[in-house]
Fold this sequence. Notes:
- The chain is about 20% helix and about 40% strand.
- With about 350 residues, it is of the alpha+beta class.
- It has a domain at about 60-85 and about 140-225.
Amino acid sequence: MKKILLIFLLLSANLSSQTRVVKMSATKSTDYGVQYFLPETLLSISAEYTKAEQKSGIYSRYAERFLGLDAKSVITEDSVTFTLEKIEVTSLGVPDTKENYLIEFKSKTTSPFVYLTEDGIICTVNADFTPSVSTKKNEQKTVKASPAVEARSALTEEYFQAGSTIKMAEIAAKRIYEIRESRNDLLTGNADNAPRDGEGMKIVLDRLESQEKALTELFTGTTSVETFAAGFEINPQTEIEKKTLFRFSRYEGIVDADDLSGIPVYINVKRAEEIMQETPEDTKRKGKEQMSIVYNVPGKASVEVFAGIKTMYKNIFQIVQFGKKQILATSLFEDKKSPVKIYFYPETGAIRQIIQ
């Protein structure tokens, strides 16, 4: 039967990398009852996008003259552009405060207990619950010298004493050719005082490569790319047709849904199957016939996210709001010799397994 929550004050906790649970026992002090919530489905949308920043080289006008580079390989103007890379959608189970129930056991039931999430969603009945834990690997980052530092370390005193921009560009280009020649001598065995071990050779070659790259970028320019992510949430109480999540601008990235500077990014949520709904009269009648446990039978829905006319994401999800409620009799737990264990999916409130 549906009841008002009287017994527990449960701490609010998001269902993230680890589900924290609370064991509740049905005893005489609680009138052999345990209250719980059923979840509803929340769709979490993650948008990943990149920011590419291009900067022209200080000697870009001399790239063809001193290095023989064509115009296509040289950045001549600074620019910033954003690109929407991908969309990911996940479903979360959050407590539906309208769906608050009480499991009522008979006093002769053998030590009944229930596991709930910290925010009150049912996990198991008469069975231990082990939360899933996600582990994150520690990422190691290698700190490299900046291109400006690498370029300065490769240049000679002659460069810094040059009296004009064109002369500085000429000396920088000359240094690039010298580095290439040095690397070639090392690889062909013609270099004096070359490192004798493989690791030492690798260190020297890597340093020459980074210096050449830094000097070349004085002519070609540089491109740096940063990756960003933004999150959005949708509670699909009904089907959704072309709801604008946000807009995306090539020059500003993610902007508000009403900002016409960007193209709209829409979401559709459509039923993938029809489930016959149980009437309130049926639920009321079953509740009177026997003590019961109410659980969810989720429906399926197609979720699609698209930017303009391009589909960015499409998948089928179980949506609690598109399903129905079902009932199990608590008389299942009265067998003292073989007590029944029930496992639920905390994300949907559906039954995962019944063991006797």
